[in-house]
């Protein structure tokens, strides 16, 4: 009678908790799961995508093991410090050979080497998920509900590659996508769709509700940007040769920072509880970014210390990260004043709402070509845009806002004044 002994790995159920992701965030919304119950995971594999009121963050595993339980469904609110998933971790402790009886050891020696080295049977799906597809590929498969076992792998040892998933999806592209029966009935019967307010939408509701309680006033003006247009046209080809795309917005951002130096109360906050005004000498200028998930306002830190070229670079990074859902909570924190470039979409005027605890915001309209009379009463073609300011009337009075806007207008109409500081 042949006998062989296999030492089972010690199983340990570990609760994986949602760690503090910073910036005082206490809860997040589960946006996407990259794993399901039964999946094998390794350290640093992606577990899920969560969204707070400030940013989206990918949570990664701290353990090797098997997913045993998911505590939340997509769309649920998860609390920091509470369990996120249960993971069966493998401690891998083997029996001490000295504890085996002599007879068993003798019989084990009679086993052919082929049998002795043969591993215990493991579920084929587990082998496939753990060894033959990367986390990125598994994520794509889960997004499109494609079982990895259905996809022929062309990589080494049958590994499923990204191209394999895409080819598989292309083969299915001619098949019409069917809605579940209950979903079709819901659409047909009610003609409405209930969308939970969460993530970015949730913070927008909260912030704008707070903003509506602030006593504000608006100030509007027209600015001639002809010289700014000419300056950008002069440098854009050179910038392009360096791989840089320069827009008008960095000039507006720098001009705002220069004006704050003379009117610091525009870059302040109100401490209502202590009846204090907090003047901020760091210029963290927020830029409204339209993303697929909603409007976010990341800010460029310490603009007072940056050149226009540096501002342009930081701006491009923030906007790219915003559109791709890669903004971090720190990108949205500690803003001091904001700009909304509605002209990029096509707007001319606006009534922008203040982003608390800030006390001022500017909306920039689109640049238009118009006919005007110059100083010599000759008709010339000019480029103009409109400035729409909203200010907190508890901190900023109308005269201060008018002077601030006039100074801002001077910088924009004479952009070489900004260049002098670079």
Automatic annotation (TrEMBL):
Under Enzyme Commission nomenclature, its number is 2.3.1.-
Q: Which SUPFAM superfamilies match?
A: CoA-dependent acyltransferases (SSF52777), Peripheral subunit-binding domain of 2-oxo acid dehydrogenase complex (SSF47005), Single hybrid motif (SSF51230)
Q: Where is this region: Disordered?
A: 91-116
Kindly state which keywords UniProt assigns to this record, in alphabetical order.
Answer: Acyltransferase, Lipoyl, Mitochondrion, Transferase, Transit peptide
Residue ranges annotated for the Peripheral subunit-binding (PSBD) domain, each copy included: 132-169
Query: Where in this chain does the record put each Lipoyl-binding domain?
Result: 13-88
MF terms from GO for this chain are: acetyltransferase activity; dihydrolipoamide branched chain acyltransferase activity; lipoic acid binding
GO cellular component, alphabetical, reads:
cytosol; mitochondrial matrix
- List cofactor names only: (R)-lipoate
Which leading EC class covers this enzyme? transferase
Which reaction does this chain catalyze? N(6)-[(R)-dihydrolipoyl]-L-lysyl-[protein] + 2-methylpropanoyl-CoA = N(6)-[(R)-S(8)-2-methylpropanoyldihydrolipoyl]-L-lysyl-[protein] + CoA
- Entries under PANTHER family matching the protein: DIHYDROLIPOAMIDE ACETYLTRANSFERASE COMPONENT OF PYRUVATE DEHYDROGENASE COMPLEX (PTHR43178), LIPOAMIDE ACYLTRANSFERASE COMPONENT OF BRANCHED-CHAIN ALPHA-KETO ACID DEHYDROGENASE COMPLEX, MITOCHONDRIAL (PTHR43178:SF5)
Name-wise, this protein is Dihydrolipoamide acetyltransferase component of pyruvate dehydrogenase complex
Organism encoding this protein: Triatoma infestans
């Amino acid at each position: 009678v042949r006998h062989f002994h296999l030492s089972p790995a010690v199983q340990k159920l570990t609760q994986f908790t949602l760690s503090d992701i910073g910036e005082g965030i206490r809860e997040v919304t589960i946006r996407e799961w990259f794993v399901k119950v039964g999946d094998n995971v390794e350290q640093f594999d992606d577990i899920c995508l969560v969204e707070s009121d400030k940013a989206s963050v990918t949570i990664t595993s701290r353990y090797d093991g098997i997913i045993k339980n998911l505590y939340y469904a997509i769309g649920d609110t998860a609390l920091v410090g509470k369990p996120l998933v249960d993971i069966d971790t493998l401690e891998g402790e083997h029996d001490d050979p000295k504890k085996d009886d002599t007879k068993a050891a003798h019989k084990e020696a009679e086993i052919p080497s082929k049998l002795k080295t043969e591993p215990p049977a493991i579920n084929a799906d587990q082998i496939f998920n753990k060894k033959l597809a990367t986390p990125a590929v598994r994520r794509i498969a889960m997004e499109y509900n494609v079982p990895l076992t259905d996809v022929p792998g062309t990589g080494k040892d049958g590994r499923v590659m990204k191209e394999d998933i895409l080819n598989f999806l292309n083969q299915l592209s001619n098949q019409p996508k069917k809605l579940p029966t209950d979903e079709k009935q819901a659409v047909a019967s009610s003609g409405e769709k209930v969308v939970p307010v969460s993530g970015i939408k949730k913070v927008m509701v909260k912030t704008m509700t707070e903003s509506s309680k602030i006593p504000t006033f608006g100030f509007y003006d027209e600015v001639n940007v002809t010289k700014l247009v000419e300056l950008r046209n002069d440098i854009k080809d050179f910038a392009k040769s360096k791989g840089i795309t320069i827009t008008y917005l960095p000039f507006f951002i720098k001009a705002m920072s220069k004006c704050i130096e003379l009117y610091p109360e525009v870059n302040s906050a109100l401490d209502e509880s202590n009846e204090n005004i907090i003047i901020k000498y760091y210029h963290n200028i927020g830029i409204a970014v339209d993303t697929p998930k909603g409007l976010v306002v990341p800010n460029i830190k310490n603009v007072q210390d940056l050149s226009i070229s540096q501002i342009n670079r930081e701006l491009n990074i923030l906007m790219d990260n915003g559109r791709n859902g890669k903004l971090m909570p720190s990108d949205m924190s500690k803003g001091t004043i904001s700009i909304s470039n509605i002209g990029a979409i096509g707007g001319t005027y606006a009534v922008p709402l203040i982003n608390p605890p800030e006390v001022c915001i500017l909306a920039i309209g689109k640049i238009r070509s118009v006919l005007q009379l110059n100083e010599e009463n000759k008709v010339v073609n000019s480029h103009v845009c409109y400035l729409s300011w909203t200010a907190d009337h508890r901190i900023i009075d109308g005269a201060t806002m008018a002077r601030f806007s006039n100074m801002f207008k001077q910088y924009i109409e004479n952009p070489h004044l900004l260049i002098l500081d670079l």
